[in-house]
Design a protein that fits this description.
This protein is of the alpha+beta class. The chain has two domains: 4-146, Aminopeptidase; 148-260, Aminopeptidase (3-Layer(aba) Sandwich). The chain has helices spanning 17-26, 38-48, 84-88, 123-137, 153-157, 172-183, 195-202, 218-224, 238-246, 254-260, and strands spanning 10-13, 53-60, 63-76, 104-112, 143-146, 148-149, 206-211, 228-232. The chain has a five-stranded mixed sheet, sandwiched between helices. The chain has a three-stranded antiparallel sheet with strand order 6-8-7. The longest helix is centred in the middle third of the chain and has 15 residues, at 123-137. It is globular, with a radius of gyration of 18 Å.
Length: 261
């Protein structure tokens, strides 16, 4: 029998209500604010696991009840400019997108839930596997993109050495430009300094777009002036994007390239 530590983890769609509720309680990226209110939790669960939503986990094939890494996905028409409809809902159920005609899959929250799950597999494997399952279910999906935080942006922009050029939080253009510079900055080892950028770019995504005011929550304002980031995953580009990163270049979308001048 294969040793558990060498077993390759697999990507599974998660549908068990009790498991999803437990994951919602542990969600660290975009948590529910009123976890002590059962009604608020059930409402959030309904929004985040509705017919236009998918949840995938990286699990041990013999223990699917334990999830190493989880990703929440929304199926949409076009790329959304705000996190709010994804976390809080867009209104009544009859205004939710028609899943069969959705053209975009938005990976809007990914995190490690149980690091003690043994096996071979990483977060990038989860995104790749989830994308394959989504395309098999919905062949019309043409865009795979994240709506990700830039957790260190505000601290970076407000550092003493940059205080004279720190953006006005109310100036969308200034915040977007600062974000483009921050997300393409690298440390002494040549890696993106932002941990989320490091993850997605290292997995072959493109730094496609920055979206000011996409997360108006106090949490979003505190970490990145409310700005979120689209990293775009295209199967045919992932190897080239990783090679570019290894060579010290970050693959950019047109909007980010223009912001950098």
């Amino acid at each position: 029998m294969t040793e558990p530590s060498r077993t390759h983890l697999v990507v599974r769609r998660l549908t068990d209500a009790a498991q999803l509720r437990a994951l919602l309680h542990r969600e660290p990226v975009n948590p529910v604010d009123d976890l002590d209110d059962p009604g608020a939790v059930e409402q959030a669960l309904g929004v985040r696991t509705g017919s236009d939503r998918r949840v995938f986990g990286l699990v041990h094939p013999e223990h699917p009840e334990r999830v190493r890494t989880v990703v929440w996905v929304a199926l949409t028409h076009g790329v959304p400019d705000s996190l709010v409809p994804l976390t809080d809902g867009a209104g009544s159920s009859d205004t939710r997108p028609d899943v069969d005609s959705a053209d975009t899959a938005v990976f809007w929250s990914i995190w490690n839930d149980d690091r003690t799950v043994e096996g071979v597999g990483r977060g990038g494997d989860l995104i790749e596997g989830a994308a394959e399952l989504l395309r098999a279910e919905h062949p019309g999906l043409s865009t795979m993109v994240t709506l990700s935080p830039a957790p260190g942006l505000r601290d970076w922009a407000n550092a003493p050495e940059r205080v004279e050029v720190a953006p006005d939080p109310l100036d969308r253009a200034a915040v977007a430009t600062a974000a483009a510079r921050y997300l393409t900055a690298r440390d002494e080892r040549g890696r993106p300094i932002d941990p989320v950028a490091r993850f997605h770019l290292g997995n072959g995504a493109r730094l496609w777009r920055v979206v000011p005011d996409a997360d108006p929550s106090p949490r979003g304002r505190a970490r990145s002036f409310g700005l979120l980031v689209n990293y775009r995953y295209e199967p045919e580009d992932r190897a080239a994007n990783r090679a570019a990163l290894d060579a010290g270049r970050i693959s950019l979308g047109d909007q980010v390239r223009e912001l950098l001048g």
